[in-house]
Amino acid sequence: MPELSPHAVWLSTPHQQLVEIAFGLGCRRFVLDIEHGYFDLDATDKLVALIRALGAEVHAKVLGPETVAIQQALDIGCHGVIIPHIGDLDHARRVTAAAKYPPLGNRSFSGTRPARYDAVTQDYYTRENAGTLCLPMIESAEALEDVEAILALPTVDGVFVGPSDLSLSRGRGAYAKTEADFADLRRIAAAAKAARKPWIMPAWAPVERRLAQELGAAWQVTVDEYGALWTGIEMGLKA
Question: Residues 99, 45: contact at Cβ < 8 Å?
């Protein structure tokens, strides 16, 4: 498989046509915002099947730091889970266990898409543990304080940054791309580099994209569904 672009598209609805358009334009990685978006299980299942059939990656920002939400996203075939509302190290340890089969974690087996709807052998569990990404979000003061220890967990494959909630949690109010905001990103990037694990962030503005590239982000989410609609409609109305 060719090397993926460092850019990903953020979906807030199960918009199959948007996926097909983005894929046609070169996108090979999608993030589903199940937490804040509009996804029911049937539509999400079909969307994941489409993205996988196209040969692209799909990662789910799950509904919350809960076992069922994490396992459900993996059971329908997401390549990774992005887990919001992570607190300190102990919380991260408990929550991320749901993304890995024993002995690493406590994920429960389901004979669904990843298992090809069949019985499996032991190598299936090994492949799933190695091949599916568990990305807790660093979006709270508690998670930032413990970021180095969180990245050291065997159930954690990397981290995903939530700059807006992180700024709020750190007492700075609205995320404004300040030096204090970027200092937090630098700490996260340094921790990920030391752990030899990837870090990812949504980078909507050019200054964020430059910083993410400078700090070695594995990939960036640079297009979001609502923003693409807004920009397209605005340009059409001004034409």
Answer: no
79 within 8 A of 139, measured Cβ to Cβ: no
Through-space distance between the first and last CA atoms of the chain, rounded to whole angstroms: 40
Locate tokens 């065997």: which residue? Answer: 154
Q: How far is 14 from 135, CA to CA, in rounded Å? A: 21
Distance from C-alpha of 205 to C-alpha of 140, rounded to nearest angstrom: 22
Catalytic residue, candidates 36, 59, 85, 91 = 36
Sign of the dihedral through C-alpha 182, 188, 193, 194: positive
Question: What is the chain's pLDDT, residue by residue, as a tens digit (239 residues)?
Answer: 446 788 999 999 999 999 999 999 999 999 999 999 999 999 999 999 999 999 999 999 999 999 999 999 999 999 999 999 999 999 999 999 999 999 999 999 999 999 999 999 999 999 999 999 999 999 999 999 999 999 999 999 999 999 999 999 999 999 999 999 999 999 999 999 999 999 999 999 999 999 999 999 999 999 999 999 999 999 999 98
Q: Treating both helix axes as pointing N-terminal to C-terminal, what angle do 206-214 and 179-195 enclose, rounded to 10 degrees? A: 30
Residue 7 falls in the annotated catalytic set: no
DSSP three-state, residue 225: helix
Residue ranges of alpha helices (H) inside the chain are: 16-24, 41-54, 67-75, 89-96, 122-131, 141-145, 147-151, 163-169, 179-195, 206-214, 225-238
Which is nearest to 96 in space by CA: 59, 45, 62, 141? 62
| The pair of three-digit structure tokens given for residue 127, joined into one six-digit string | 């492949």
| DSSP per residue, 8-61 | EEEESS--HHHHHHHHHTT--EEEEETTTS---HHHHHHHHHHHHHHT-EEEEE
